[in-house]
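SAMPLE LOG
Freezer: B-3
Tube label: C17
Construct: single chain, 346 aa
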Amino acid sequence: MAVTESNIHALWVAYQAAKGTASTTATKRLQQVGGDLNTSRADGSENFSDLDRFGGAIDFIDTIQGDGAPVIHAQPNSTAYLCWLFFGGETFTAAFAGVAPKYVFVPQANTGFWATWWKRVGLSEIVRQKFNDAKITTLKIEGSTANKIVKITPSLIALDPGERFATDPSPSLEVAKPFLYTDAVGTLEIDGTVFTAQTQFAVTIEAGLAPYQGDAIKFQDLIAGNANVTMEGPTILLDTDGLAQYNKIIYGTTTPTSSQKPAITAPAIGAFTCEFVRGTGATRESLKIELPAVKWSPDLAVAPNPDGGAIELALNGQMRKVAGSPAVRITIETGGTGGDTAAHST
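STRUCTURE (predicted):
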């Protein structure tokens, strides 16, 4: 008796022209390293009495939807494609005179593009499922010194999930390697200051989409709510720069006086920038994340430790808007071997 192999798996995705028009051909195969896509069914029931101590019940299917959050290696071209689907647009600059192709993503007036996803698990006993009418509801980009490979996690909802398919899509894995945390040496800036003594960060961009059910078991559409951008970290060492940042958040200045008390007015808005880069000129590959305005959390503590060791501060923050700037900007260059060289055509 054969057993389905969990370590043999693949994930593909393609843009959909419209809701209700599933794609028949995949565009990208993604390098998945965690998470999953699921077909989730919610059942309901209602009890009734039949004059017996153990009464009866009526069962029914309440909803069926596809959901999940596959964790994917942040390769340049795959990351650009996922950003395009999520943001619903891009500004593309073609390669010229030794300059790599560049894609710039900022929030658009729409709620992103519909997409079709294909999932396969197993080699001898295979599960193949297709997730139609899907949108990415949240996009998370994270990196750390503990796990050097940068990852992108799209959380999505599919209105028409679980369709069986017989043959794997044709796109193969991307040639370019994923970005590494060490590709960002000297580029992580907090409020305009470069911090090298930092160990992790994660940016989460939430579209605020929620499913709406009409008169069918499957959801009718996705409804827009409040969108937001949040940060986990960056986590910084409490050295000279770290202490100055702590003082600025708590006291409102990097150099508080001996008699100064915590600030009682709203602090100045900060900013965050980080860029992963490798190669130069026409072969340059990069991923730049910019949050022009961040409200840092005041929940910081400097705790002693009898055994010694590093004191780290996880800043954490939430997006704020400033005139003339988007909530978030992501810029990707794809000049490496096998890179995308054209706009993601719709």
